[in-house]
Amino acid sequence: xKLQAANIPGSQTAQPKIGLCHLLPSRQFMRYLLVGVWNxxxxxITYAALTWVFSRHVAFGYLYAAFLSNFIAISVAxxxxxxxxxxxxxxxLREWLRCFVVYGAAALPSLLxxxxxxxxxxxxxxxxxxxxxxxxxxxQLTAEYLRTTFLTAPYIAGAILTAxxxxxxxxxxxxxxxxxxxxKVPESLQ
Length: 190
Known about the structure:
Blueprint: H1 20-23, H2 27-55, H3 61-85, H4 92-124, H5 143-162, H6 166-177
Helix pairs in contact: 2-3, 2-5, 3-4, 4-5, 4-6
């Protein structure tokens, strides 16, 4: 009769975790979501404020606002993730640069898609860039509402595209920005 190593207490073979706790997200991921929610709000407010400022001075001000607000928000997010989520020490410059690589990989498609989504929103509401209402606008509540759609489309597009980077950036930060030299992350940090 052979004994299986998995049934012997203290054996080296790991048994799979079974239960509700295994199905729930790790504490590290929950901290990431909390910092991410705060930073998303901060980043979006920064984007909206800069869009408001730049749009009064230059054409396509929302693109300049998107670039600058991403730089500011990534720097603020980096500190939140470093201190509260991944809890690493030292290596500020190296990890900050890696943070930009991870976010750059996520932000570049968003920056490229921003004009597309802005124009798609304008098309959906049939508002021309000069603020005139199209013939068959499907959502004609008032002419003023449709006129303001052109003005608000960059804000709505920014919110839509902001939502697309959460999971990608978590794994990017975990495995690139704040990776641990040893292979295993202590349970107390998860």
